[in-house]
Design goal:
Number of strands: 10
Oligomer: single chain
Family: Belongs to the ABC transporter superfamily.
Number of helices: 10
Keywords: Amino-acid transport, ATP-binding, Nucleotide-binding, Transport
InterPro entries: AAA+_ATPase (IPR003593), ABC_transporter-like_ATP-bd (IPR003439), ABC_transporter-like_CS (IPR017871), BCAA_Transport_ATP-bd_LivF (IPR052156), P-loop_NTPase (IPR027417)
Protein name: ABC transporter ATP-binding protein
Structural class: alpha/beta
Bound molecules: adenosine-5'-triphosphate
CATH class of one domain: Alpha Beta
Largest sheet: 6 strands, mixed
GO biological process, one term: L-amino acid transport
CATH topology of one domain: Rossmann fold
Length: 235
């Protein structure tokens, strides 16, 4: 990262495997305490594997992860989340058989702040109109909003978002993007996003993965203008 401030997340040379199949090769990255960074790459490049390694669902075989001033390479997921890591998975991270209200209550279980639910509803007011509705019947965009809101109820200082606008109608994408830009003023976001223009608009810095390796990294502007970018993202 170009910022001189201490990063909230510092990843050094991690290698992650599924069994004997290596998917990440010596990946290093840093995220600042505020602002957003993008993780880009074509299908299968290793973006979700990287997110799962950061949240602790997968253990890297080599390398280290430092979060908020502490080594956490071997820390269980639950402890990372308690320490301020939030994760909105690519697959819909909501309970379909529970209502919007119940989903938010579950998200707020570990939050002692009783006003947190109301505050989260000011971020995506549409959800407030759908509190009794089963989450499984929400539109794709509303489900993403609910998943982000649930993650925010954990008061994250670093929020990992795996394709927050995937399958979302373009009109709602803008609303989600605006809220992400607001959030990035206060916390750190790492955003995996297929939509290149959008990813580079929302973020200050970007990493491009190619077959599990960081092939390009730099300010989002520099990455946008890099002649290698299209080749790295083409199928
Ligand atoms: N559980 C698994 N077991 C074995 N291989 C896996 C597993 N999950 C993912 N992979 C493989 O790891 C590689 C990276 O997958 P990953 O999901 O991290 O890519 P991605 O960049 O997020 O792709 P996409 O943009 O399609 O979501 C792919 O070749 C994938 O087939």
């Amino acid at each position: 990262m170009s910022e001189s401030v201490t990063p909230i997340l510092s990843v050094r040379d991690i290698s992650t495997f599924y069994g004997s199949s290596q998917v990440l090769f010596d990946v290093s990255l840093e995220a600042p305490a505020r602002g957003a960074i993008a993780v880009l790459g074509r299908n299968g490049a290793g973006k979700t594997t990287l997110m799962k390694t950061l949240v602790g669902e997968l253990r890297p075989r080599h390398g280290s992860i430092n979060f908020d001033g502490q080594p956490c390479t071997r820390m269980p997921t639950e402890q990372r989340i308690r320490r301020g890591l939030g994760y909105v998975a690519q697959e819909q991270a909501v309970f379909g058989q529970l209502s919007v209200r119940e989903n938010l209550r579950v998200g707020a279980l570990a939050n002692p702040d009783k006003g947190a639910n109301e505050r989260v509803l000011t971020i995506f007011p549409k959800l407030g109109e759908r509190l009794p509705q089963l989450a499984g019947t929400l539109s794709g965009g509303e489900r993403k909003m609910l998943a982000i809101s649930r993650a925010l109820l954990g008061n994250p200082t670093l929020l990992l978002l795996d394709e927050p606008t995937e399958g979302v109608w373009i009109g709602v994408v803008e609303e989600i993007v605006e809220r992400l830009l607001d959030l990035a003023r206060d916390i750190s976001l790492i955003i995996v996003e297929q939509h290149l223009e959008l990813a580079l608009r929302v973020t200050n810095y970007a990493y491009v993965l190619d077959r599990g390796r960081v092939a390009l990294a730099g300010s989002s502007e520099a990455v946008r203008d890099d002649p290698q970018l299209l080749r790295l993202l083409s199928p």
